[in-house]
UniProtKB/TrEMBL annotation:
DEAD-box RNA helicase Q domain sequence ranges: 1-29
Alphabetized Pfam families for the sequence: DEAD (PF00270), Helicase_C (PF00271)
Record bears the keyword Metal-binding: no
Organism encoding this protein: Polaribacter vadi
Protein name, entry field: DEAD/DEAH box helicase
InterPro entries: DEAD/DEAH_box_helicase_dom (IPR011545), DEAD/DEAH_RhlB (IPR044742), DEAD_box_RNA_helicase (IPR050079), Helicase_ATP-bd (IPR014001), Helicase_C-like (IPR001650), P-loop_NTPase (IPR027417), RNA_helicase_DEAD_Q_motif (IPR014014)
Annotated family: Belongs to the DEAD box helicase family.
Compositionally biased spans, kind Basic and acidic residues: 382-400
Coiled coil: none
Length: 450
């Protein structure tokens, strides 16, 4: 099947031709007529299968030209980076159509966004938090929304956007079409569908956990963090093979620490993104990596979820993710649009259990490669890797560990005095021999005791 069989408008077909696409992916093929029908839709497909085009093609096909100021289509995505990416995709598709698109997200000036909304928009792409702020401040009128698309909904719920989503549903018109896309079907997603969707049509292309056939996976068993760093140095020094590499880590702290270890050798070739980095830094890092100015991008799971990069040669999992689904999303960054991709998984002894869970989900055993001989096995250990007795001496020692001894010096004489109470006052009185009749100086003067 080709795009020409999909009943696209001429303008959309010209845009698709310009992009060089000929055949729709399975999700695009199946979703087209269902989304156009106006029913509620739930699409389950892995990352890298072209979900953005799957919902935008049918929506743009039926979106008539209008001069109205209020938006008619709302697309919700979990991260700011995805907002920019989806806006970019829509602009590519609407090259020959007169459609106004705006992306709004936190971390940018809200007043500029309000002004842009007032100019009039057809499609708003937003993160839930910022959209709710704009809806409450009345800058964005949501009463004319006809279609609501929630993309990467499983990530949204993972990030704790559940309440914002509920609030957004409250302020949207009841009569609308809901389109939801997710890479995994979790219980939370199920509850959301039951509560807010009316007899949705379900499209499932690939069960989460089936790796894409065009991704070649290998793994290394490595004793510790610094040996992993040594292996990375070895692999990344081959610039021809590893020409566009995405390195995943589980935590922001690990990302920064690893960046420090690699910075000296690959400083100009690498960048890092995680949620503690500023918005401008993140946008710049992604752009430089996408354009090929930087060869290596270091990212945390949530940050790179759903991001689409062309021609990623390798995805390196620096640590083994605890949740098998995260591994699926990581490796989905390569081998996109049916190209061949390669992934490498680095696992320590501690991480073997997580690796087994990943293999069970995929029903596939990842081949293990021998470490190259020139890799030095590091004896250095990180804080987390050291034996417990080395670093678990509590700073707030318990009574059992800490038995106080005697004071380290004798008390000085003045500090040795004890409170004598009433008798002490009597001693003072004796010493200074207070007059019996107080204040009568003349009497005292004449009647001195001899």
């Amino acid at each position: 099947m080709t795009f020409k069989d999909l009943d696209l408008s001429n303008q959309l077909q010209y845009a698709i031709d310009d992009l060089g696409f000929e055949n729709p992916t399975p999700i695009q093929e199946q979703a087209f007529s269902v989304v156009r029908s106006g029913k509620d839709v739930v699409g389950i497909a892995q990352t890298g299968t072209g979900k953005t085009f799957a919902y935008m093609l049918p929506i743009l096909r039926d979106l008539k030209f209008s001069k109205q100021l209020h938006p008619r289509v709302l697309v919700l995505v979990p991260t700011r980076e995805l907002v920019l990416q989806v806006v970019d995709e829509i602009e590519k598709l609407s090259k020959y159509i007169n459609v106004r698109v705006l992306g709004v997200y936190g971390g940018a000036n809200i007043n500029t966004q309000k002004q842009a909304i007032l100019q009039g928009q057809d499609i708003i792409v937003a993160t839930p938090g910022r959209l709710y702020d704009l809806g409450l401040s009345n800058a964005l009128k949501l009463k004319s929304i006809q279609k609501l698309v929630i993309d990467e909904v499983d990530v949204m719920l993972d990030l704790g956007f559940r309440f914002q989503l509920m609030n957004i549903f409250e302020i949207l018109p009841e009569r609308r079409q809901n389109v939801l896309f997710s890479a995994t079907m979790t219980e939370d997603v199920d509850v959301l569908i039951d509560d807010f969707f009316k007899n949705p049509e379900k499209i499932s292309v690939a069960v989460s956990g089936t790796p894409l056939d065009n991704i070649e996976q290998v793994s290394y068993n490595i004793p510790n963090f610094f040996t992993k760093v040594n292996l990375l140095h070895h692999l990344l020094s081959d610039k021809e093979t590893y020409n566009k590499v995405l390195i995943f880590v589980g935590f922001k702290r690990t990302a920064d620490y690893l960046f420090k270890q690699l910075e000296e050798v690959f400083n100009d070739e690498m960048c890092v993104i995680h949620s503690n980095k500023t918005q401008n830094y993140r946008i710049r890092s992604i752009k430089q990596f996408d354009e090929g100015k930087n060869r290596i991008l270091l990212a945390t799971d949530v940050m790179a979820r759903g991001l689409d990069f062309d021609n990623v040669s390798h995805v390196i999992n620096f640590d083994t993710p605890e949740f098998p689904e995260n591994y699926m999303h990581r490796i989905g960054r390569t081998g996109r649009a049916e190209k061949v991709g390669k992934t490498i998984l680095l696992s320590t002894e501690k991480e073997q259990e997580s690796k087994l869970l990943i293999e069970a989900l995929m029903d596939y055993e990842i081949p293990v490669l021998e470490l190259p001989e020139e890799i030095e096995i590091s004896k250095l250990l990180t804080e987390d890797e050291r034996p417990k007795e080395d670093h678990e001496q509590s700073k707030n020692r318990t009574k059992v560990e800490y038995v106080p001894g005697a004071a380290f010096h004798e008390k000085s004489e003045k500090n040795s005095k004890t409170n004598q109470g009433g008798s002490y006052r009597r001693e003072i009185a004796k010493k200074y021999k207070k007059p019996k009749t107080r204040g009568d100086k003349n009497y005292n003067k004449h009647n001195k005791k001899k």
